[in-house]
Predict the 3D structure of the following.
Amino acid sequence: MKQSLVIVKVGGKIVEESDTLEQLLDDFNAIPGNKLLVHGGGRSATALAEKLGIESHMVDGRRITDAAMLDVVTMVYGGLVNKKIVASLQARGVNAIGLTGTDCNVMMSDIRPVKDIDYGFVGDVKAVNSGFLSSLINQGIIPVLAPLTHDGKGQLLNTNADTIASEAAKALASMFKVTLIYCFEKPGVLLHEDDDNSVIPYISYYDFPRLVQDGTISGGMIPKVQNAFNALQAGVSSVLITKAESLDKLTGTTIAL
Amino acid sequence: MKQSLVIVKVGGKIVEESDTLEQLLDDFNAIPGNKLLVHGGGRSATALAEKLGIESHMVDGRRITDAAMLDVVTMVYGGLVNKKIVASLQARGVNAIGLTGTDCNVMMSDIRPVKDIDYGFVGDVKAVNSGFLSSLINQGIIPVLAPLTHDGKGQLLNTNADTIASEAAKALASMFKVTLIYCFEKPGVLLHEDDDNSVIPYISYYDFPRLVQDGTISGGMIPKVQNAFNALQAGVSSVLITKAESLDKLTGTTIAL
C-alpha cells in the first residue's frame, strides 16, 4: 500500500508575516505523515519591486515578469520567503529543505509562448524530478518549494505556485497517496461570495459546469477548481480548497471526480 | 581509499556578473571528480541595500548585519546568486543543488557574542550536517552553498563564506580526501603586494609566523591563511589560494602543514 503524502500550497499574506506564518507552520506541522509545502510570496515581491522602482504588471492574477522582476521574485521567493519558512520549520524539529525548480532539476519548464500577452520569464512546467523529491520524503525530509522553475538552459522562470503544487502532486501520485490542499483567503468555494459561512463542502466533476454556468464559481476560482480536477484525473487522491487558518481542522471544499 | 572532493570558494564580482560567472563555472565544471561550491555575493548585497536606502557597515571586511540587512543577504545570497549559479550549472548538465545552512540543517551556528563590536545577525558555525552533504555528493549531486546559516531556533544568520568553505571541508574530511580552494582577486599570496607575478608557491606552518612578522602576509590575508592551517590541522588534505581566473590551471599558493 502506498504511503500518504499531503501537499499544502499556501500563498498570500499569511506566509509573509511572521505572526501568521508561525501559526500556519504549527498547523502544517500537526498534519501527520509525509508532507510537502509550496509557498507564494507575491505581496513581498510587489513590495520589494515598488521600493526598487520596478512596476508590477498583473494579467488575470499572473505576474508579467521582465528581467528586473525575475531578479525580484528570485530573491523573494527563492531567498527571503523560502529560507524563513525552512528556518521556522527547523526550529520545530522538522527537517525541511527549501528548493526551487532548478535545484536538482526538481521542476523544469518551458518559457510561456507569446500569444495575446507576453508574460516574459514565466514558465509552464514540463517535467518534475519526482525521484529526487520522493527520496527526500522517504528520508523524512519535508521539501519546501518556491514558485520558480528553470528551462534547463540556464534560465530561471517564474511559475504560478498553484501550478507548482498540482504538478508536484501529479508527479508524486504514482508513488504516494496524495492529498492536495490549496489554502487561500476564503474558507472554501463559497455559494455566496460574501458569506464565509456558505462553503460548498463538496464539488464533483458533474457539478462543476453547472456551478460555472450559474456564476457560483467565477473569476480566479475557475482555474483553481479546474486545476484540482486535472490533478484528480492524473491520479491525485483528493483535493481540498480551504483557508490557511482552517488547516488545523482540514475543513473546506473537497473536490472529487 | 577515500574518494576525492574539491571544495571551491568563490566570492567577489566574478560570481555576480554573468559573463565572468559563465567562465568560472566552465572552469569549475572541468575539475574532475566530486565537487562542492561555496559562493559569496557581497557586492550585490551592498548594491541592493543601497537601492533600498539601507547603509552597509563593514568592520575588517565583515558585514554588520541588522534585521534589514539580514533580509537583503537572505535575498541576494540564498536567492539571486545561489539560484543563478545552480541554473547555470544545470545548463551544463551538472546536477547542482543550492543550499543555505538551514536547508536540511546543513550548517548550524551560534549568533556571535557581542564583545567590542555588535555584528548583529552573524553566526559562528558550530555544526555541519556532513551526513546529508556526503549523501548528496555520493549521488553525484554538487552542493552549492550560500553563506547563510541558522541557529536552529528559527533565526537565519549571515556567515562568512570563507568560514562556510573551511567548516564544510573540515566536516567532510573524515569521509573524503578534501582539497579546499579559495579563489580571490589575486593569483595567490604575493611576496610583493602590487606584483601579481610574485606569487609565493608554498607556505608551510613553519614559514607563516615569519611572513606575518615581516609584513608579507598582512590585513585580510592573515585570517585567510590561518583558516587554511586550521582546515589542514582538522584533516583537510590540501589548501590552495588562487584567483578564480586561474581555476582551470590550479596554480596559486599551496598552504601546507
About this structure: Chain B touches chain A through 37 residues (CB under 8 Å). Helices of chain B lie at 18-30, 42-51, 67-91, 130-138, 161-172, 208-213, 221-233. The longest helix of chain B spans residues 67-91. DSSP finds seven helices and 14 strands in chain B.
